[in-house]
C-alpha cells in the first residue's frame, strides 16, 4: 500500500539502496519524516548506457579524435601550449560540440608532470614531449582522451622507453574491460605493470613487489587507472569501483608515469618526462571484447611519429603543376582584394560601422582577421578573412595556394601576434584602409 517509492523503478534485483535522510528537516517536520534522494537512482540509470546513448558517446569521441589528429599533424617545435589548446577547441566546436567538459591540459616538457596543469602558456621546444588531455561535450555526452607525442615528430630513446612501458599498461588494461571485472581490479593491474616498469628503468631501484608493498610507485603514478564516463567527465560517483562491469558501461583507461625534472633520484635521461595515454572504452555484452571509442587517435610510437608534423611536411612540398604559390608577404593585399568587391556597396553602412566600432586601430590603418578552414579529410584548405569591424567573411581564392612559411608561422602560431582563441589570429602587418 501507499504511494510507490523511487526504488520500485529498479526493483529488488538492482542491488541498490536509496539513502534516506532526516537531518536538517527534523526540527521542522519531526523525526518521523524521511525522504529519498534520487542521486543514486539517477546514477544507476546513467551508469549503463542505452544504444542511443552509446551512439552519442561515439559521436563525441569521433569529434575529439578528429581534433587530436589535426593537432598532432600541425605540431612543430616552438609552438605555444595555448595554440594547441585553442586549436583543439575550435576544431571540436567546428564539428558540432557545444562546449568543453573540462579545461584542456596541454603540457609541454616538464609541465606534463603536473597532473591537472592548466596554464597552457609555455612554448614547447624541439626534443620535448607535449601531453594533451582534452575532450568535448556533444549534446550532453562527453569524451575524455589523452595523448603524448614528441613535438618535433621523433621520440628520443629515453622518451620511447617510458612511452612503451605506459603503452603496455594501457593495452593490458583495455583488454580486460569486459563484463564481470571491476575498476579496482584493473587499477591493481596497472599498479603492477607500472611498478615493474619503474624497476626495469631503474627509476626505483627495488623489486616490483617491494615497490607495490611500500607504495613507492605513488609519486610517479599518483592517480587511478580510470573513471566512469557519460554525461559528466567523472560520472556517477556513487557507483563503486568495486561494481562488476555490465554491458553498456563506459569508462576511461589512463595509465601514466610522471618523472619530474627536480627529482634527482630519477636517472638524468628520464627527468622531465611525463606520459599519459587515455582512451574511452565501452564494455560490450555477449562475450565481445571492449570497444575503444577513441581508438582512431594513433597510439603506437610508430603511428604517432608518422602523424606528428605531417601537415607541415605536406606544406613544404612543391605546389602541384598549375597551382600558384602565394607568399604570405603579399597575403594582406590578397585578403584586401577579397573584400574589395563589396566596398562600393553599403558605403554608408561602413561609415556607421566605423563610428560605432570602439576597438583601437591606427590612423587610417586596418587589421585583417585570418581563420583557418579545415578540409574534412584533414589539413588546411583555405582561409576566411574579414576586415576588422566590418563583419564580412568569405573564402579568399587568392589564399588557396598558400604554402607554409616562416611568415605564416609568425601569423597563426606566434605567441606575440595577438588572438589565438578559436584558431584565429590577427595578420601581423597592417595596410591602408580603403577609403
Structure, explained:
With 435 residues, the protein is α+β, with helices and mostly antiparallel strands. 32% of the residues lie in helices and 16% in strands. The protein has 13 helices and 20 strands. The strands form 8 sheets. Strands 18-17-16-19 form a 4-stranded antiparallel sheet, covered by helices on one side. The protein has a 3-stranded antiparallel sheet with strand order 4-6-9. Strands 10-13-14 form a 3-stranded antiparallel sheet, covered by helices on one side. Strand 7 (137-138) and strand 8 form a beta hairpin. Helix 4 (51-74) crosses helix 5 and helix 6 runs antiparallel to helix 7.
The proportion of strand residues reads 15-25%
The structure class reads alpha+beta
Name the poorly predicted regions: 1-22, 322-435
Helix percent reads 25-40%
Q: How many β-strands, per DSSP?
A: 20
Q: How many helices?
A: 13
Distance between the termini: 83 Å
List keywords for this structure.
435 residues, 13 helices, disordered C terminus, 20 strands, 16% strand, 3-stranded antiparallel beta sheet, alpha+beta
Give a short summary of the structure.
With 435 residues, this protein is of the alpha+beta class. The chain is 32% helix and 16% strand. Helix 4 crosses helix 5 and helix 6 packs antiparallel against helix 7.
Write the layout of secondary structure elements.
Layout: H1 7-10, E1 20-21, H2 26-29, E2 35-36, H3 39-47, H4 51-74, E3 79-80, H5 81-94, E4 105-108, E5 123-124, E6 129-134, E7 137-138, E8 141-142, E9 145-150, H6 157-175, H7 183-201, H8 208-213, E10 250-253, E11 256-259, E12 273-276, E13 279-282, E14 291-292, H9 301-307, H10 310-315, H11 331-340, H12 347-356, E15 365-366, E16 368-374, E17 380-387, E18 394-395, H13 406-412, E19 424-426, E20 431-432
Antiparallel strand pairs: 1-2, 3-5, 4-6, 6-9, 7-8, 10-13, 11-12, 13-14, 15-20, 16-17, 16-19, 17-18
Amino acid at each position: 500500500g501507499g504511494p510507490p517509492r523511487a526504488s520500485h523503478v529498479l526493483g529488488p534485483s538492482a542491488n541498490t539502496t536509496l539513502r534516506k535522510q532526516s537531518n536538517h528537516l527534523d526540527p521542522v517536520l519531526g523525526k518521523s519524516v524521511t525522504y529519498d534522494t534520487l542521486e543514486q537512482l539517477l546514477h544507476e540509470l546513467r551508469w549503463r548506457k542505452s544504444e542511443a546513448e552509446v551512439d552519442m558517446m561515439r559521436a563525441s569521441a569521433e569529434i575529439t579524435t578528429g581534433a587530436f589528429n589535426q593537432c598532432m599533424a600541425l605540431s612543430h617545435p616552438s609552438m605555444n601550449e595555448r595554440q594547441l589548446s585553442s586549436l583543439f577547441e575550435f576544431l571540436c566546436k567546428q564539428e558540432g560540440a557545444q562546449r568543453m567538459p573540462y579545461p584542456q591540459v596541454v603540457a609541454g616538457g616538464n609541465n606534463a608532470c603536473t597532473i591537472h596543469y592548466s596554464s597552457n602558456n609555455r612554448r614547447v621546444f624541439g626534443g620535448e614531449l607535449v601531453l594533451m588531455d582534452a575532450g568535448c561535450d556533444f549534446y550532453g555526452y562527453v569524451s575524455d582522451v589523452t595523448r603524448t607525442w614528441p613535438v618535433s615528430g621523433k621520440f628520443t630513446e629515453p622518451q620511447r622507453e617510458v612511452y612503451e612501458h605506459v603503452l603496455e599498461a594501457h593495452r593490458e588494461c583495455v583488454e580486460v574491460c569486459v563484463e564481470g571485472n571491476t575498476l579496482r581490479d584493473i587499477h591493481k593491474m596497472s599498479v603492477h605493470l607500472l611498478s615493474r616498469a619503474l624497476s626495469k628503468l631503474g627509476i626505483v631501484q627495488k623489486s616490483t613487489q617491494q615497490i607495490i608493498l611500500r607504495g613507492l610507485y605513488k609519486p610517479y603514478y599518483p592517480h587511478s587507472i580510470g573513471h566512469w564516463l557519460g554525461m559528466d567527465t567523472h560520472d556517477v560517483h556513487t557507483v563503486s569501483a568495486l561494481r562488476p562491469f555490465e554491458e553498456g558501461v563506459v569508462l576511461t583507461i589512463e595509465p601514466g608515469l610522471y618523472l619530474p625534472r627536480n627529482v634527482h633520484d630519477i636517472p638524468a635521461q628520464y627527468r622531465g618526462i611525463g606520459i599519459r595515454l587515455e582512451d574511452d572504452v565501452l564494455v560490450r555484452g555477449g562475450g565481445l571484447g571492449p570497444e575503444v571509442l577513441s581508438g582512431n587517435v594513433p597510439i603506437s610510437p610508430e603511428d604517432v611519429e608518422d602523424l606528428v608534423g605531417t601537415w607541415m611536411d605536406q606544406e613544404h612540398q612543391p605546389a602541384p603543376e598549375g597551382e600558384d604559390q602565394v607568399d604570405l608577404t603579399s597575403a594582406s593585399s590578397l585578403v584586401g582584394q577579397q573584400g574589395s568587391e563589396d566596398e562600393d556597396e553599403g558605403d554608408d553602412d561602413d561609415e556607421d560601422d566605423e563610428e560605432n566600432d570602439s576597438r583601437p586601430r591606427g590612423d587610417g590603418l586596418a587589421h585583417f582577421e585570418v581563420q583557418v578552414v579545415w578540409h574534412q579529410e584533414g589539413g588546411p584548405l583555405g582561409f576566411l578573412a574579414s576586415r576588422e569591424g566590418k563583419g564580412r567573411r568569405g573564402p579568399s581564392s587568392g589564399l588557396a595556394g598558400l604554402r607554409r612559411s616562416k611568415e605564416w608561422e609568425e601569423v597563426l602560431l606566434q605567441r606575440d601576434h595577438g588572438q589565438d582563441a578559436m584558431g584565429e589570429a590577427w595578420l601581423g602587418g597592417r595596410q591602408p584602409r580603403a577609403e
